[in-house]
Every structure is written in structure tokens, then in C-alpha cells.
UniProtKB/TrEMBL annotation, chains A, B:
Keywords linked to the UniProt accession: DNA-binding, Transcription, Transcription regulation
Residue ranges that the Swiss-Prot or TrEMBL entry lists as coiled coil: none
Keyword Transcription: yes
Name of the protein in its database record: Winged helix-turn-helix transcriptional regulator
InterPro entries membership: HTH_HxlR, WH-like_DNA-bd_sf, WH_DNA-bd_sf
Originating organism: Rhodococcus daqingensis
Taxonomy, superkingdom: Bacteria
Keyword Transcription: yes
Residue stretches making up the HTH hxlR-type domain: 24-122
Amino acid sequence: MTDPDLPESEPGLAFAADVFERACASREVIQTVTGRWGTLALAALAEGPYRFSALRRRVDGVSERMLSQTLQALERDGLVDRAVLTAIPPKVEYSLTPLGADVASRLVGLIELVESRMPEVIDAQSRYQAR
Amino acid sequence: MTDPDLPESEPGLAFAADVFERACASREVIQTVTGRWGTLALAALAEGPYRFSALRRRVDGVSERMLSQTLQALERDGLVDRAVLTAIPPKVEYSLTPLGADVASRLVGLIELVESRMPEVIDAQSRYQAR
């Protein structure tokens, strides 16, 4: 969203994304990043580069097709680098870009928070079921 | 996941969630929290309590049904409180629990990061399209 109050000559300021606006491009990026497999793929790549098949084993339960689509979206948005390494047979390695590493570290923080607070979540779920 | 190496007598330690395991309950919670509308509902409620209709206006584009399902899942997991205020007609207000506030502040950090780096994302998307 461009704020009409900001002068167009200041490109750094004239660009203001607002994820609450349905048409804002940032919403789509947030959804790639936080999507079912985007979160797990980024969190796995925060551990280090992965080849496709190893990443698929790490992200337990993802199909080949879904992981491939997820990585393509993350590569398109500049969060993941795909490198073809010279070898026989050629190896393809996925790693985080600097932007991807920043995003992934936030996601890992979120995951660690939720993992550590699961006893509270499970208590809440039991109380909710018992109502 | 219970780690067999940890003594069962230490309840705080015996519980170790691992979001990478497909059967771990934490994965479902992460997916509620980071889901299409979960993220936006939590980020909106980080601004303060909302009544249903005001929240629906804030989360531009969400249907009544999807917002209602999202809030129900967040309430079940102990992230959102639903309070019926005595008034004629009765008012229903949604707010974050302390756990919900912790989760929401991580999400808001993630959203702000993505919003601020959108020029980089858009550059990456243009390069990807041009290949």
C-alpha cells in the first residue's frame, strides 16, 4: 500500500506494506512463509542446507509434490536459494538467503515458544472439551 | 514426544514437543497459529480486544464462517478468551490470553519483518519471473 501522504520521491518511505489489507502483496508472502509446509521447510533449513530428499525426511509427512511447490514459492520470494552442484549425478541443494535466515529465525522462535508451552495448550484443550 | 532417556518423575522435562514429527500435537497448534486467518486474527487481537464484527472488518477479506472457526480453534488451544459481556443485546468480546499474547507478539515481529523487507521480496520475484 502506498501512503498518499508520503512524497513519491522517497522510495524507502513511500512503500508501506500492510498485511491486514487483502490486496497487499505482503499477505501472500506471510502465507507462503507461515503455510503448512513453508514454516517447517524454513525451520529445517535454519539448521543448514539440505538436499531435497533429506529435507523431505526432516519435514516428516510432506509429499514430494508439496515440498517441491513450497520450495519453489520460497525461492520465488527470495527466501531460499537453489544451487545445482557439479557432481555425477548433479546434486541440488537448498539453503536460506539472508532474508530467509531472518524470517526463519523468527519462525524458529515461534515454534520453540509453542513447543515449550504445549502443556498449557493441552490443559486448555481438555478444559474446552469438558465444557 | 516423550524422550525415553528422561526420567518420568520430572514432568517439566519429560514433555518434549517436536514440530517436525508428523504426529506431534505441537504441529497442529503451529498450524492453527500460522494458518491463513490465525496469524491475522492473533495480530489484530495484539492491538487489543475486539468484538466479532470489528475483528472481521480488521481482518480484511475473512468470511464470517472462517473467522468463527479460527476463533474457536484459538479459544480451544488457550490462545484467545471469549467473554460474553452483560448488555442488551449481549456483547461478545475476544481477547488474547497471556499465552496468546506471547504467541501474537512473535507473529507481529514476523509480520513487521516481512512488511519491511517487501522491496527485497518484490525484487526477487521480478528476477524469478525474468529467468
